[in-house]
Design goal:
By secondary structure, this protein is mainly alpha-helical.
Length: 73
């Protein structure tokens, strides 16, 4: 019969699984914990452009990057 295709130590059910399989990756859990809002209190619009230094921009960028990363999962 077809027993020569399968080593006798393996059950016959393994033989069907020897065909090409799609890659079965386990679902990736999000590695980042839920981020609490880390942005400082926002000044009113119009003041932010004057008072917002590089720290403000970096904080906003990191928030956007985290949001994009989480949306990719």
């Amino acid at each position: 019969m077809l027993s020569h295709e399968c080593p006798p130590s393996l059950p016959s059910g393994i033989r069907e699984q020897r065909g090409p399989q799609p890659p079965t990756l386990p679902p990736q859990p999000p590695t980042l914990p839920p981020q609490p809002p880390t942005l400082p209190p926002q000044p009113p619009p119009g003041v932010r452009e004057e008072a917002g230094g590089p720290e403000q921009t970096d904080q906003q960028l990191s928030t956007v990057i985290i949001a994009l990363y989480l949306s990719q999962i």
